[in-house]
Amino acid sequence: MKYLIIGVGGTGGILGYKLTKGGKDVTLIARGEHLRAMQENGLTVHKIWDGQTESLPVKAIAAEDYQEQPDVILVCVKGYSLDGVYPLIRRVSGSDTVVIPILNIYGTGGRMQEELPGILVTDGCIYVSANIESPGVLQQHGKICRVVFGVRKKDEFRPVLADTARDMEECEIRAILSDNIKRDALQKFSYVSPIGAVGLYYHCAAGEIQHEG
After folding, report:
1. Mean pLDDT over all residues of the chain?
2. Where are the strands (E) in the chain, listed by range?
3. Do residues 45 and 17 touch, judged by C-beta distance below 8 A?
4. Coil, helix or strand for 131?
């Protein structure tokens, strides 16, 4: 299958890196210095938890240069950039293309579906901690990389979603094809939002808060 990942930050970059390393057909949409660095030097990931650094050639291009028709589009931009990705999705999607938004905003898929009639948009979320360290270089803080996704209505299910989960698992991405994505996404965000506020207030990481007492 052909994968298109829009947004190559801490979320899309890690997914793109793992899928590419696993031999999948993946194109990364980026821009500016980040794009040029990946085109020239590949994508580098610094794994903070074990001190390892890996670099890998990736297929990275600008949105206007993408001319293929993907089977799956993973949307990994920030929420304020969503409006800018709709023209690309409309241009490259076929009747069977599935869009999986993986943003830290609850209910993104439903809102995107209104803008993309005729294209199946699921919902999804991810458990990963990473960020752009410098152009072409990502910093991953822990080994957890888990993606949860699924359709909001059972009759919208397509086999390509199961294929996507299988591909992710083959690439060391824990993939959970949810039968109740509203519940599972809410579970993630109901943890992330308060833990983020507490962490900022007390200047501590999530691991410290998880200790007994």
Report:
1. 95
2. 2-6, 25-29, 43-47, 52-56, 60-61, 72-75, 98-101, 120-121, 123-127, 130-134, 137-140, 146-150, 174-177
3. yes
4. strand
CA distance 119 to 34: 29
- Report the alpha-carbon distance of residue 32 to residue 82 in Å, rounded: 18
Closest C-alpha among 74, 80, 104 to residue 2 = 74
Closest CA to 120 of 146, 85, 84, 158: 158
Give the contacts of 212 (CB within 8 A, at least 6 positions apart): none
Region 94-111 average pLDDT? 94
**Non-local CB neighbours of 26 within 8 Å, separated by 6+ positions:** 3, 4, 5, 16, 19, 20, 58, 59
**pLDDT score, position 209:** 81
Both structure tokens of 31: 């821009």
Residue 85 token pair: 């990705």
Is-above-0.90 flag for pTM?
yes
Please say if the pLDDT value at position 213 is more than 80: no
Q: 87 or 49: whose pLDDT is higher?
A: 87
Res. 22 pLDDT band, cuts 50 70 90: very high
Stronger pLDDT, 212 or 46, i.e. the higher one: 46
| Per-residue exposure over 152-167, b if at least 16 CB sit within 10 Å of its own CB, e if not | beeeeeeeebeebbeb
- Rounded to a whole number of angstroms, the distance between the first and last alpha carbons of the chain is 47
Grouping H, G, I as helix, E, B as strand and the rest as coil, residue 70 is coil
